[in-house]
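Researcher: Let's try something more involved. This one mixes different molecule types, so please make sure each is placed in the same coordinate frame as the others.
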Amino acid sequence: MSRRTALRIGPSWWLMSLPLLTFLILPLAAILLQSRPGEIVANLATPTASRAIALSLKTSLITVTLTVILGTPLALVLARRDFPLRRTIETLIDLPMVLPPAVAGVALLIAFGRNGFIGEYFGLQIPFTQAAVVMAQVFVAAPLFIRSAIVGISKVRDELIESALLDGATTWQTLRFVALPIARPAFIGGAVLTWARALGEFGATIIFAGNFPGRTQTMPLAIYLGFEMNLDVAIALSVILMTTSFLVLVLVRYLMNA
Amino acid sequence: MGVDSAYSGSEYTSMRSSIWILIVCGLLAGCDFRKSATPPTPDNQAKLTVFAAASLTNAFTEIADAFETTNPSVQVILHFAGSQQLAQQIKLGAPADVFASANRLQMQTAIESGRIKGGTPHAFAHNKLSAIIPPSNPANLHTIEDLAKPGLLIVLADIGVPIGHYTHSFLDRAALLIEDSYKENVLANVASYEQNVQAVLTKVSLGEADAGIVYTSDLTGNPSVLPVNIPDPLNLNTVYPIATLSDSSYPEIAQAFTVYVRSHEGQRILAKHGFISEDPA
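Model: All components are placed in one shared frame. Result:
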């Protein structure tokens, strides 16, 4: 995509863009200014912080992996096939993104709890486990990947696919060597958005997976409860979460432009 | 990101529908149904902001209505959350006129912030603890000793929440009076430390947990869970203090509200919701 428009954007536009820019950056700056680097390091060494960071990294990476593996076929189907109810399915997939996370948590609990549809028939204990943390993250974050992947695949022109098939490529080869390379930036972008959303997931997790240090207490949960118990640990974790997210976003921009 | 011209017609349509869903959700979240039901308030009406512990939700809603009826020039704005959250909000400068806490510890935090004068809080209600089980009682629990059986799923409130703090005091006491290993065994069964008492109630009433510990007042008018009694020698007498904020815009009304809560009428409403009166007659 082109990075610059041909329109002349003068100083008055800069002036008008300042209020929102300031509003978006100020809270981030406030939390950085509130923190002391020495204290952050000390607080990170606490078991609460280190366990929450490890758990968050582990679960969010599993979430991204699962989403890419299971979301790619779904995105392919939705992007390439016109079948009845396609639009309805697409809209339903978007729904978890716009639902309040607490609603998502209650929905997961009712569907996958031990008295829910699944739990009652298979006798599985899912709530309060790490599997529940991953499920909550996939539920709210996977739509971001699917949506982005659909857009990416739609960008692949039909003629390209047709000529590859005419030249004797199998469906798998066409996807692997023609379609996916073109859609790659959208796939990476979608995966990163999913990862970022998973890392910040709070509402669905605390309802469906509960809060137990080392088992289901991710960084956002530790931050929320820490706000009430120990503000310093909460701020230290917030700074880590912000820095990690920032670095990953920078890395992705670099990868996508490369 | 690449969301520029890539939208084909159908994607545009589904994007539009997502936007509609967003708008509807936004509208629902933005509406305050209680407010929209009352006529618009005249400008000269005093708006009294009351910060109250989550466990007081039903009782204080009724007390606020009664107070407004007696004082038509006052509108009471209630803000319920965990006391620890309210105390932090007061510390960080949130505008409030009255603070009703579920324990003395969080009132102390508010006093240390300098916005409440030490010595001014008054106890206005008491509560006790009760264990709860789902009506189906999947783990077949009957006494408080049963909570120490291995392999249970128990949910407790986090120790930062007043009820969580009280729960730990109860477990300490039970370790002395029942068995040394009681606290350890119960804690080994804990599946989750919830952020408020409501979350404990919800998980037990859905049957996702075998048991939890809440306030006895939470059981009033709540048929979705069954109590498992905690005998008096093991139980605690929890105290709810109330105080006015020294920087209140309506110090007289704030004072009148705290007096009303402690009055005969206020105490009657609290008792109706399962609280123990401050001054049992």
